Amino acid sequence: MTDAAAAITLLIVDDHPVVRDGLRGMFESAPGFRVLGEASNGVEAVSLAAALDPDVILMDLRMPGGGGVDAIRDLTRTGARARVLVLTTYDTDSDTLPAIEAGATGYLLKDAPRDELFAAVRAAAEGRTVLSPAVASRLVSAVRAPRAPGNDTLSAREREVLALVAKGTSNREVARELFISEATVKTHLTHLYAKLGVKDRAAAVATAYERGILG
């Protein structure tokens, strides 16, 4: 097997050309990696992933023309082989949790040392989860946080489900819109009912408007 054949292939996704150039130069100067292409937004990333079939996609999150989380969802939905390693400057709950839920294999911040990034890409290529310490801490806190009825924050996905429900969308239509199963929609509804302290869709919508979650 040649070195080229053994190399981990990459797709770099970032809306800043300077960042893409820097990452390409970093990986092309190191043995064991091969950059197949670059994309400037999530939509382009999904298209290139289908055409190039990389092992790992380095994915930024906030990009004009198509964000990273939506791209990760599309890649997961279409059964793409590539592992997605998020590489971003954002480590807030509103960024990290949706990305992981959407199917990202790992999540690193752009200030990660060079060797840590290389190790993370190798791990992602093997299907292992890689999280920066700050992100890992946030995820652990989110998992361990007490979930008292009516006194908890809805997840990004639960907010999406609730917003569609508020428009009169059926469970089947919600599932189709968000590319998830009806069973998953029902699970999200059950969770958000518990968090809002309600028992049905109408009460959930009314309570969400009252608390400023919707509208």
Automatic annotation (TrEMBL):
One of its GO terms (molecular function) is DNA binding. Residues 9-125 form the Response regulatory domain. Residues 147-212 form the HTH luxR-type domain. InterPro entries: CheY-like_superfamily (IPR011006), NreC/VraR/RcsB-like_REC (IPR058245), Sig_transdc_resp-reg_C-effctor (IPR016032), Sig_transdc_resp-reg_receiver (IPR001789), Tscrpt_reg_LuxR_C (IPR000792), WalR-like (IPR039420). Keywords: DNA-binding, Phosphoprotein, Transcription, Transcription regulation. CDD domains: LuxR_C_like, REC_NarL-like. The modification 4-aspartylphosphate is found at residue 60. GO terms for biological process: phosphorelay signal transduction system; regulation of DNA-templated transcription. It comes from the Bacteria. The keyword Nucleus does not apply. This is DNA-binding NarL/FixJ family response regulator. The lineage of its organism: Bacteria, Bacillati, Actinomycetota, Actinomycetes, Kitasatosporales.
